[in-house]
Amino acid sequence: MTDAAPLRTTIKVASYNIHKGIGTDRKRDPARILKVLGEMDADIVCLQEADLRFGTRTSVLPRFLIESHSDYIPVPLDVQADSMGWHGNAILVRRGIAVESHDIIHIPCLEPRGVVTATLRIGGTSVSVFGMHLDLSGLWRVRQACAIAALAQAARAKGPTVLMGDLNEWRANSGCFREFGRHFAVLDPGPSFPSRRPLGRLDRIMHCERLVDKGCGVHRSALASTASDHLPVWAEFAVG
């Protein structure tokens, strides 16, 4: 008699730079962003530019709107009462996914930048998620990638780990991709920027060996091409 095979569950993750809710038609429409998220139907979503940049940095997606018009809840980062994210980065999880822990991370930066992270309980497995929006400067992107990869390495020792965000990297196999690639598989969902005629592969998803890649891509729809200047990217994983 042989031992039973370990249970596996499949999760879908997505990363989306929502451009503060401003679409290519120059209209700010948070409800439109939520409709795009509904089209994708991911379990976990990392957002970039989820808060207004100046003033009180209030959330682009009000909590009441998220809870009443989507299946998601924001991970509570406890940074500011009116803000959902940290330097614009936020994590949304599907209802029913337990948030075991969460944190904000300071990284070396030229511009105001930060990283958000959470450990989520999915199908009996704890998965660590890192969401980020890296610098426009190539030198600072590499420094940031080194710092984030070191922290994610520590998380990987405890369980499955996935990293997502707008890396702002136009080069195919150098810069921050090389740094992340030393420790994680860097997926290439496809061109996601600008949304109407995408050329840049700026939005990426990375994962450790505990997550088995089942496919990835760019979410293209008429709504997504208008809702933001970036298209969202997604990946599906089998989790041991």
Provide a quick synopsis of the model.
This protein is of the alpha+beta class and 240 residues long.
Feature tags:
disordered N terminus; 6-stranded mixed sheet; 12 strands; 20% helix; alpha+beta
Distance between the termini: 22 Å
Q: So what's the CATH class?
A: Alpha Beta
The backbone outline, from C-alpha atoms, is globular
Assign the CATH topology: Deoxyribonuclease I, Chain A
CATH architectural arrangement: 4-Layer Sandwich
Please characterize this protein's 3D structure:
The protein has 240 residues and is an alpha+beta fold. It has one domain (9-239): Endonuclease/exonuclease/phosphatase (Deoxyribonuclease I, Chain A, 4-Layer Sandwich). 20% of the residues lie in helices and 32% in strands. It has helices spanning 30-40, 63-69, 138-156, 176-181, 224-227; strands at residues 9-17, 44-48, 72-74, 90-94, 98-106, 114-122, 125-133, 161-166, 185-187, 203-207, 211-218, 233-239. The strands form 2 sheets. A 6-stranded mixed β-sheet has the order 3-4-2-1-12-11, with helices on one face. It has a 6-stranded mixed β-sheet with strand order 5-6-7-8-10-9. Strand 5 and strand 6 (114-122) form a beta hairpin. The protein is globular and about 40 Å long. Residues 1-6 have low confidence and may be disordered.
